[in-house]
Design a protein that fits this description.
single chain, 329 residues, Rossmann fold, 2 domains, four-stranded parallel beta sheet, two-stranded antiparallel sheet
C-alpha cells in the first residue's frame, strides 16, 4: 500500500522563473501572477511573447538584488515561499524613466527632439500650445506600454502592492528632482492620491493610486493628504472614449481640509495612468475650484501667492502609431 502524501508539504515548490511560459495563443504568453487572483487574461496577453519573456531573464544574483535585512526576506521568498511574479528591480533591469525632455511637461505626451517650445513655462508642444490644461505641470515615468504597462496592470488586477510601491518610489524620485530643479521648498509640496470609491475599493481589493502615492512618499519625503473624494460612477475602462469626460463630470468633491491648505502650496495629484486625461482634468478642476474658497491667511513659508497643481502619473497612454514607431526604431 503506497504511503499517503503529507497534507502540508514543506517547503512548497517555488516557481521556476527561468522556465518557458505556457503559450495561450500565437504571439502571446501568460504572465506569472498570483494564483489566487481572478485576473483577466485578455488584459495581459496583448504583448509579443519575446518581450514578456524578457522580464524574467534577469539573473536573480545580479547587483540589483537587495542587501542587508532585505536579503534574508529575498532568500526566504525564493527558496521557501516561491515567487509567483518577478519584483520591480528584476522587471525594470533594462528600463529607465523618461527624462524631462522626452515628454511635454504641460500635457505629458511623448515628444521628439526639438518639438518642445521652451519659451513658455512649462514648455509646451504643438498639441497643447493652444490649450489650457487643468494642471500647471505634468510629470510621468514613461509611455504606457512594455514592462511599465504590464506592471501597472498587475498592480490593479492582481493586487501586487509591493510592485506598486516600487513604481511609486521611482515616481517620487522624478517629482523630487523637479521640485529641486525649480527650487521649491519641500514643505510646500503635498501629495494627493486619486480617490477611489469604497464600492470600487471593495470590488477590486486594492486602492492602487494610494499604493503608488505611499511609495512616492517613501522616496520623496513629501506628505500625503486625502483632499479629494469621489462619487461612484461606472468604470472609465468600460466606457468608450467619447463618454469618459461626461462620466467623470461632477464625480469629485473636496474635503473641508482643503480650506487649510497654505496659499503657496504645490499640490501633486498622483494616479496610475493618463489615457484621455478626463479623470485627471476633472480632479484638478475640482481641486482648483475648492481652493478659491479658502482664506488667504499668511503662512511662515509663503513665497508665492498662487497655489500650483501638478499632475503625476506612472504612465501615459501612447498616441496612435507611437508604439509601432518605437518598435521600428
Amino acid at each position: 500500500m503506497p504511503a499517503k502524501p503529507p497534507k502540508f508539504p514543506w517547503p512548497p515548490n517555488p516557481t521556476d522563473l527561468t522556465a518557458p511560459a505556457e503559450k495561450l495563443s500565437e504571439g502571446a504568453v501568460h504572465l506569472l501572477t498570483h494564483s489566487a487572483d481572478n485576473l483577466d487574461l485578455d488584459v495581459l496577453t496583448d504583448e509579443p511573447s519575446d518581450e514578456i519573456a524578457g522580464d524574467f531573464d534577469e539573473d536573480l544574483a545580479s547587483p540589483s538584488t537587495p542587501h542587508g535585512a532585505s536579503r534574508f526576506f529575498h532568500a526566504l521568498e525564493l527558496q521557501f515561499l516561491g515567487r509567483t511574479s518577478a519584483p520591480w528591480h528584476i522587471r525594470a533591469a533594462h528600463w529607465h524613466p523618461d527624462e524631462p525632455g522626452n515628454y511635454c511637461p504641460r500635457c505629458g505626451i511623448t515628444c521628439r527632439p526639438f518639438e518642445l517650445d521652451t519659451l513658455t513655462d512649462p514648455a509646451s508642444c504643438v498639441r497643447c500650445r493652444d490649450k489650457r490644461p487643468a494642471w500647471d505641470r505634468f510629470i510621468r515615468l514613461g509611455s504606457y506600454q512594455g514592462v511599465l504597462a504590464r506592471s501597472i496592470r498587475e498592480l490593479k488586477f492582481s493586487r501586487f502592492r509591493a510592485l506598486g510601491e516600487s513604481i511609486g518610489r521611482v515616481l517620487g524620485e522624478s517629482i523630487r528632482k523637479e521640485v529641486e530643479l525649480r527650487e521649491i521648498h519641500p514643505r510646500r509640496v503635498i501629495l494627493i492620491p486619486m480617490p477611489m470609491t469604497p464600492w470600487r475599493r471593495l470590488a477590486r481589493g486594492i486602492d492602487h493610486s494610494l499604493v503608488l502615492t505611499r511609495g512616492t512618499r517613501r522616496s520623496s519625503g513629501f506628505p500625503i493628504q486625502k483632499l479629494l473624494a469621489r462619487r461612484h460612477r461606472p468604470s472609465q475602462v468600460s466606457l468608450p472614449v467619447s463618454e469618459r469626460r461626461r462620466n467623470v463630470s461632477g464625480a469629485f468633491f473636496c474635503r473641508r481640509s482643503v480650506l487649510r491648505i497654505p496659499p503657496d502650496a504645490v499640490l501633486v495629484v498622483v494616479d496610475d495612468v493618463r489615457t484621455t486625461g478626463a479623470t485627471m482634468t476633472e480632479a484638478c478642476r475640482t481641486l482648483r475650484a475648492a481652493l478659491k474658497q479658502r482664506s488667504t491667511t499668511p503662512n511662515s513659508i509663503q513665497t508665492d501667492s498662487r497655489t500650483q497643481i501638478w499632475a503625476a502619473t506612472a504612465g501615459v497612454a501612447p498616441l496612435p502609431g507611437e508604439g509601432e514607431a518605437e518598435k521600428q526604431g
